[in-house]
């Protein structure tokens, strides 16, 4: 199966001020060598890549061979923060007339809460289970073996793997997708800075998704801006927004040449706008973030914070996971690695519907024959 998109035409001018070339390294800062001709070519390529992502073409999903049977008992495990999209797995399953239960875990409680949620889901004896990972898959190795023994159809969502692990039918929004939006954030920031600035990459490296996307952001910034210094600023979901904001401000004060912050989760931006204002940095720092997680959050860009969103699959990843289960249930081919899309959103093209792939619900329900 292929997820195909129809090209739409949209242009976004990303015209912000130039930054300065970094000369020192702190806070995990890294820089590289430079070749002027290669640097110019890399920047031109990056600009072209950004232009490709300024549209939001309608999602096209391959139709099923028949409508799935109603009444299937399914479950999902996801975290409680907005970027885990709680409620969306159930919404997609209920569109098919399935019985769905969602089990959530609190990131502040660490891996033990994740393990407990998976165990609770398996105790309910679902026919299928979609698991959204933020911790390494080995954390629930015993539970996976139990699920396989019980014949549960498993879908991996957002793990660090390149392919579905043994016993899973599909990997939705996994390593390659996480790296893709991380890379695009680096591209956006580097293009906006014209290759001349220092950058702070902000994330919680204890979580696989942030670690993978953040690594891709750093690598892309170094590729497009080889003379620039990149600082990795480690914050945490287990900390309060105030603590995270203090960490970010302290890093900016130690490294006053940083002009861009690139956030690996919109949830980690809580309190940052206010903290930048209080520190007198609001006009200096430009912010790029993956997200948003709602139309209202997207439109906050009109206030100038953030300066750019890199829209990922958003809540549609839950629908994509259910789509794989639906395909499996009717005997249709399943995507081992589900295809994904991304979008670049600035104040110039910001519309509420840009926060997710265009018309994704209609695309899925039509493909399932339940529209």
Structural commentary:
With 371 residues, the protein is α/β, with parallel strands linked by helices. The protein has eleven helices and 13 strands. The strands form three sheets. A six-stranded mixed β-sheet has the order 9-8-10-11-12-13, sandwiched between helices. A five-stranded parallel β-sheet has the order 4-3-5-6-7, sandwiched between helices. It has a two-stranded antiparallel sheet with strand order 1-2. The longest helix is centred in the middle third of the chain and has 18 residues, at 175-192. 49% of the residues are buried. The model is unreliable at 1-26 (pLDDT under 50).
Task: Give a short synopsis of this structure.
The protein has 371 residues and is α/β, with parallel strands linked by helices.
Ends apart, CA distance between termini? 20 Å
**Biggest sheet overview:** 6 strands, mixed
Mean pLDDT: 89
SS content category: alpha/beta
* Overall form: globular
Break the fold down into its secondary structure elements and pairings.
Blueprint: E1 4-5, H1 36-52, E2 59-60, E3 73-79, H2 88-95, E4 99-105, H3 111-123, E5 128-132, H4 141-149, E6 153-157, E7 168-172, H5 175-192, E8 198-203, H6 208-224, E9 230-234, H7 241-254, E10 258-263, H8 272-278, E11 286-290, H9 295-299, E12 308-311, H10 316-329, E13 343-345, H11 360-368
Give keywords.
371 residues, 5-stranded parallel beta sheet, single chain, 6-stranded mixed beta sheet, alpha/beta, globular
């Amino acid at each position: 199966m292929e997820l195909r998109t129809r090209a739409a035409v949209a242009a976004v001018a990303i015209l912000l001020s130039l930054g300065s070339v970094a000369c020192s390294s702190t806070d995990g800062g890294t820089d590289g060598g430079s070749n002027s001709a290669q640097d110019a070519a890399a920047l031109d390529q990056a600009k072209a890549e950004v232009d490709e992502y300024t549209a939001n073409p309608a999602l096209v999903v391959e139709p099923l061979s028949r409508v799935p049977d109603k009444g299937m008992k399914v479950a999902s495990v996801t975290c409680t923060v907005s970027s885990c999209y709680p409620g969306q797995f159930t919404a997609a399953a209920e569109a098919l007339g399935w019985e769905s239960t969602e089990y959530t875990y609190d990131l502040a409680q660490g891996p033990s809460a994740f393990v407990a949620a998976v165990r609770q889901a398996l105790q309910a004896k679902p026919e299928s289970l979609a698991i959204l990972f933020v911790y390494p898959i080995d954390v629930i190795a015993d539970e996976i073996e139990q699920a396989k023994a019980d014949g549960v159809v498993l879908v991996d969502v957002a793990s660090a793997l390149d392919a579905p692990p043994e016993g899973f039918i599909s990997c939705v929004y996994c390593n390659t997708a996480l790296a893709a939006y991380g890379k695009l954030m680096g591209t956006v920031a580097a293009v906006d800075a014209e290759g001349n600035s220092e950058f702070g990459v902000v994330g919680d490296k204890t979580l696989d998704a942030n670690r993978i996307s953040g690594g891709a952001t750093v690598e892309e910034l170094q590729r497009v801006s080889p003379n620039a210094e990149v600082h990795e600023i480690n914050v945490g979901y287990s900390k309060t927004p105030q603590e995270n904001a203090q960490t970010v401000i302290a890093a900016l004060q130690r490294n006053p040449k940083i002009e861009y912050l690139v956030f690996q989760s919109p949830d980690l931006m809580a309190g940052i706008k206010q903290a930048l204002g209080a520190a007198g940095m609001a006009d200096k720092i430009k912010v790029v973030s993956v997200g948003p997680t709602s139309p209202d959050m997207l439109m906050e860009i009109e206030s100038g914070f953030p300066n750019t969103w890199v829209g990922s699959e958003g809540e549609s990843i839950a629908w994509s996971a259910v789509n794989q289960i639906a395909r499996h249930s009717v005997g249709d081919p399943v995507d081992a690695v589900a295809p994904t899309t991304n979008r670049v959103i600035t104040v110039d093209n910001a519309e509420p519907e840009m926060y997710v792939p265009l018309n994704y619900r209609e695309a899925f329900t039509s493909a399932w024959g339940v529209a």
